[in-house]
Design brief:
By secondary structure, the protein is mainly beta. The protein has strands spanning about 5, 10, 20-25, 35-40, 45-50, 60, 70-75, 80-85, 90-100, 100, 105-110.
Length: about 110
Protein backbone atom coordinates (compact mmCIF):
# COMPACT_ATOMS: atom_id res chain seq x y z
CA UNK A 1 0.00 0.00 0.00
CA UNK A 2 1.34 3.41 -0.99
CA UNK A 3 2.25 5.71 1.88
CA UNK A 4 4.00 9.02 2.56
CA UNK A 5 5.30 10.01 5.99
CA UNK A 6 6.62 13.47 6.71
CA UNK A 7 8.98 14.44 9.52
CA UNK A 8 11.07 17.36 10.70
CA UNK A 9 8.47 19.93 11.63
CA UNK A 10 9.26 21.87 14.81
CA UNK A 11 9.10 25.31 16.39
CA UNK A 12 11.81 27.56 14.96
CA UNK A 13 12.68 31.22 15.36
CA UNK A 14 12.28 33.71 12.52
CA UNK A 15 15.34 33.65 10.31
CA UNK A 16 16.05 30.05 11.19
CA UNK A 17 16.35 26.97 9.01
CA UNK A 18 14.65 23.62 8.94
CA UNK A 19 14.70 20.52 6.75
CA UNK A 20 11.57 18.48 6.21
CA UNK A 21 11.76 14.89 5.04
CA UNK A 22 9.15 12.69 3.40
CA UNK A 23 9.59 8.92 3.27
CA UNK A 24 7.73 7.15 0.47
CA UNK A 25 6.79 3.49 0.23
CA UNK A 26 4.56 1.18 -1.77
CA UNK A 27 4.97 2.75 -5.21
CA UNK A 28 7.64 3.37 -7.83
CA UNK A 29 8.96 6.56 -6.24
CA UNK A 30 11.55 7.34 -8.92
CA UNK A 31 8.85 7.55 -11.63
CA UNK A 32 6.79 10.28 -10.00
CA UNK A 33 6.93 14.00 -9.49
CA UNK A 34 6.89 14.87 -5.79
CA UNK A 35 5.52 17.99 -4.17
CA UNK A 36 5.36 19.84 -0.90
CA UNK A 37 2.17 21.70 0.01
CA UNK A 38 1.25 23.68 3.09
CA UNK A 39 -1.99 24.65 4.76
CA UNK A 40 -3.05 27.06 7.48
CA UNK A 41 -6.43 26.91 9.21
CA UNK A 42 -9.19 28.42 7.14
CA UNK A 43 -7.19 28.45 3.91
CA UNK A 44 -6.78 26.07 1.00
CA UNK A 45 -3.76 23.83 0.77
CA UNK A 46 -1.18 25.55 -1.46
CA UNK A 47 1.68 24.19 -3.55
CA UNK A 48 5.07 25.21 -2.15
CA UNK A 49 7.52 23.29 -4.31
CA UNK A 50 7.68 20.43 -6.79
CA UNK A 51 10.47 18.28 -8.18
CA UNK A 52 10.49 16.10 -11.28
CA UNK A 53 11.02 12.36 -11.15
CA UNK A 54 14.78 12.53 -11.63
CA UNK A 55 15.19 15.86 -9.92
CA UNK A 56 16.15 17.88 -12.94
CA UNK A 57 13.18 20.25 -12.88
CA UNK A 58 11.84 22.16 -9.90
CA UNK A 59 9.07 24.66 -9.25
CA UNK A 60 8.70 27.05 -6.32
CA UNK A 61 5.89 29.29 -5.23
CA UNK A 62 7.09 32.90 -5.49
CA UNK A 63 6.69 33.35 -1.74
CA UNK A 64 9.42 30.77 -1.04
CA UNK A 65 11.65 31.04 -4.10
CA UNK A 66 15.23 31.72 -3.08
CA UNK A 67 14.60 30.56 0.50
CA UNK A 68 13.38 26.97 0.09
CA UNK A 69 14.97 24.12 -1.84
CA UNK A 70 13.32 20.85 -2.80
CA UNK A 71 15.42 17.78 -3.47
CA UNK A 72 15.02 14.03 -3.67
CA UNK A 73 16.99 10.86 -3.13
CA UNK A 74 15.51 8.16 -5.35
CA UNK A 75 17.73 5.48 -3.87
CA UNK A 76 16.28 6.21 -0.44
CA UNK A 77 12.72 6.96 -1.61
CA UNK A 78 12.80 10.33 0.10
CA UNK A 79 12.01 13.90 -0.81
CA UNK A 80 13.25 16.86 1.21
CA UNK A 81 12.38 20.50 1.70
CA UNK A 82 15.20 22.69 2.96
CA UNK A 83 13.72 25.87 4.38
CA UNK A 84 15.95 28.87 5.11
CA UNK A 85 15.28 32.41 6.28
CA UNK A 86 12.00 31.28 7.76
CA UNK A 87 9.26 33.83 8.38
CA UNK A 88 6.22 33.72 10.67
CA UNK A 89 4.03 33.48 7.57
CA UNK A 90 5.69 30.15 6.76
CA UNK A 91 3.87 28.68 9.75
CA UNK A 92 1.65 25.87 8.48
CA UNK A 93 1.15 22.15 8.30
CA UNK A 94 3.39 20.90 5.51
CA UNK A 95 2.26 17.95 3.41
CA UNK A 96 4.11 15.72 1.00
CA UNK A 97 2.28 14.61 -2.13
CA UNK A 98 3.02 12.10 -4.88
CA UNK A 99 1.39 9.18 -6.69
CA UNK A 100 -1.92 11.00 -6.04
CA UNK A 101 -1.68 10.46 -2.30
CA UNK A 102 -1.06 12.76 0.64
CA UNK A 103 1.10 12.33 3.68
CA UNK A 104 -0.29 13.05 7.14
CA UNK A 105 1.51 16.38 7.48
CA UNK A 106 4.08 17.89 9.82
CA UNK A 107 3.62 21.15 11.74
CA UNK A 108 6.08 23.97 11.18
CA UNK A 109 5.80 26.94 13.51
CA UNK A 110 7.94 30.03 13.04
CA UNK A 111 7.78 32.22 16.10
CA UNK A 112 9.99 34.02 18.58
Amino acid sequence: QADLVESGGVLVQPGGSLRLSCAASGFDFSSHYMSWFRQVPGKERELVAQVSSVGGTTYYDPSVKGRFRISRDNAANRVYLQMNSLKPQDTAVYYCRGFNIWGRGTQVTVSS
